[in-house]
Amino acid sequence: MFARTEVTTSSPGEKTGQDARVAKIALAGQPNVGKSTVFNMLTGLSQHVGNWPGKTVEHRSGTFEHDGVPVYIIDLPGTYCLTAASPEEMIARDYIIREKPDVVIAVLNAASLERNLYLVAELLALPSPLVIGLNMMDVAKQQGFEIDPQALEDAIGVPVVAMTATRNEGVHELVDVALDIARHGPRREPNRPEIRKDHLEVLARLRTLIAQYVPDPYPVDWVALKLLEGDQEITALIKAALPSDIWPEVDALLAQHEDAFLAVASGRYEWIRRVTAGALKRPRPGRVSLTQRLDRVATHPFLGLVALAAVLAVTFGLTYSIGSPLQELMATHIVGGLANLAGRLLAGGPVWLSALVVRGIIGGVGTMLTFLPILAIFFIALGLLEDTGYMARAAYIMDRFMHALGLHGKSFIPLFLGFGCNVPAIMGARIIESPQGRLITILLTPLVPCAARLGVLAVLVPIFFPENATLVAWGLTGLPLIVLAILGMVLSKLVLKGESTAFIMEMPLYHLPNWRTIGLFAWNHVLSFLRRAGTIILAVSVAIWLLATLPHGDIETSYLATIGRLLVPIGSWMGLDWKPLVALLTSFVAKENSVATLGVLYGVGDEKGALSQALLRHLTPASGLAFLVMQMLFIPCVSTLAVLKQETNSWKWAFVEILLLAALALAGGVVAYRLALWLI
Amino acid sequence: MNSDNVIVLSDLEAGGRGIVVRLEGGRGFLGRMAALGFNPGATVDVVRNDGFGPLIVSILDTQIALGRGQASKVYVRREGR
Fold first, then answer.
1. What is the interface pTM, i.e. ipTM, of the complex?
2. Domain end (from A131, A151, A184)
3. Label partner for A530 (CA 20 to 30 A): which of A401, A454, A471, A538?
4. Chain A window 548-607: which residues touch B at a Cβ cutoff of 8 Å?
């Protein structure tokens, strides 16, 4: 299969093609309904994953052919409703209103039909014709629900297709029906929900007042309803559009009916009760499902922690037992092979050229490539935890602890992944729905000491503190975590302005993993790392290599060394000369570089005994401690920064992070040095 | 507990059942909760309430984890089972 996946941050409308033959379908649905499975089933690898313009919400679209008809399909963000409360909800409704897809497919989870119909009630108020894909029929049956799709179709007045997407049942029929509606329009006028009776009059009055002023392409009925619901975006829109003599009347009407939101919601539930009356039979109470039995352990305040620890241990065990050997294989065979090949090809040319290509460029590519096995395994693990439903349990268990930091329970898993590598940890923060929660998690992640930094500790701590190595190493590991906790509390105060993140999370039923979904999840993440972060990582690696090599070809006399010497006044606060400072600067490319750079600068190479003697000759234990503290808190490596920029969609946060951590590292180093002088 | 048996959801013990009476909070919170089924008249069952940390409740055939803060803004009338 030829992969056409590509990353786009451009306008989502542009690829729809002005070609009238292409049918434009939008997939809508609440979270946990198997919408991604349907999307993946239809598009496979011909999907584009990027961000919505200016947002950090994932934009997924794709193309496929159905019986010779070209189809463009967009996977709208999963939302429970279409208020303007979250960027996802805003994106979903704006897309339907502005881009006018030929047909909207609402994917529903048959095992929680009534709640899923709430979104349908909202979608029916929008202009695009609707088709319902009643998914997860197998799960509904297993849970004891009896559902009659035909009765539902008759009651709502839009086509209903029963399906089990994980087994590819009903997906083809769903597209058949959707394309038929796209071509010929809706078969009949659907049965739409109405506002509760006592508010019919005020809604009609509101409608009359605004009717001639509602800007295109907003439907008047929908705008009137949203005004009554108290929707902030629509209220602002109408306030701007209405003549100044009409707005006060509208405003007064809305103020009188501040509680109208309840009337709208009740109207929707009344409609749901009506349309499901003849179509849904619930199971007899008293059944204990597999999910309930598993949850007795998984959500237990103590046993749940044990289960989580076991899951994480297995994840890490697998990552290192499979990932590390793969990493080495790639380093020797692919990167090494490339270097040999380039060396031979450039043998006749100037020395600087082959050095630039072999050590600078291929070195940078190597840094990037060696991430891939670990990234792939981490994302498969993350996808597996999410797809089976376990992620919600982990978030539930950890919420009480993360809450103290002003964070959501879901922040725990990405942060914990950071111990392996900060890169997948930051990308994994996508599972956090709230944009503020996601931002704080991303900014905190670099304070989780990654495997590379722990590796540096393992080499250097025994040299400076042979007697208390374990204690010092634990202290140095714990320090950034304590800083993380404090910074978390401060950031959540600043970013959330005292408003703690609401923890409202669906606990989906457990189910067997869908390998196609997980595979595409991992594939898209790895690809997005390569495409978007790859160029930054490569450019910075080459730049640092040049700084460390020019003008004379060795690091001692390089520009980097000159920079290091300029920093000596700062280093003197911690009793450090320029060499450890330069080592710290080279750790910007990859954290483990510190040790190698120290070896080169002290002229001892890789030999460990010699490094140990050289370090002890030049640095006191107090300075050594300051250096190690700086190493643990210093600015993240370039790969981490590149994904940080990519995931926050802004250079601003990448620079904030650099300044913040540089300041923390400096402060930490000085405090550690003074404390050590005083204690030792 | 007051006379008409209305308590906040976070005070309802595991295994308890209540009928939603009203919710407090901002429009965003109310909208989100309404979409999950927390509408006056809805039946809610408490699946897990350990007295600290978030709760798990069952509403409209779905289990929802709710922070203690959020659960204390939902007023329910206790139902015997």
1. 0.94
2. A184
3. A454
4. none
